[in-house]
Structure formats: C-alpha cells, structure tokens
Amino acid sequence: MSQLRPAVVLFMVLMLFTGVLYPLLTTGLAQWWFPQQASGSLLRQAGSVRGSALIGQQFTQPGYFQGRPSTTAERPYNAQASGGSNLAGSNPALDSAVAAR
Fold first, then answer.
1. How far apart are CA 57 and CA 83, in angstroms?
2. I want to staple 78 with a disulfide (CB 3.0 to 4.6 A). Which of 14, 49, 64, 72 is the partner?
3. The pTM is what?
C-alpha cells in the first residue's frame, strides 16, 4: 500500500505533462514559428476553404522524392479532386499508367 501513492502521483504528473502541457507547448510553438504550415496551408476562395497547398504537389527537381502518382480529373495534381488510384505497387496497370503520364 505504501507504493500506491507515489505511483498514482507519478501517473498524474506524467499524464498532465504528456497529455496536456507538451501538446499545448508544441502546438503553440508550431503556430508561432510556422503559422501557415501548422494550420494546414489552407487555400481559401470566396471565404470558404477549398483545399490545402500541400496536397498533390508536383515535384520536378531531382532532389525530391517521387510523389504519389496523381489520378485527378482533367489536370494532374488538382488538389480539389485529390485521391489515389488504389492500385498496389506491384500492379502492372499502375506501372503503365505512371509511364503514360
């Protein structure tokens, strides 16, 4: 019974730190240092949110990783119609679609 009180106190202290203080601190610092990125890089049009600038980016320089192939409608990397093809990496149809693009 003598170990129960320190265990409960330690649990409460760690719960407060890891569940409240640390998330508030990291969120506050992110909003302060990187306000655009921390808020999701939202694109607004006519007063409403239309998407994010970080969805469907097309990387053309060799220093970047290859992005996920875009299967959006009329133009590639359209953030308003983002989505994947749901084809597995081993599917030959995905290889031919990527090669065609």
1. 12
2. 72
3. 0.46
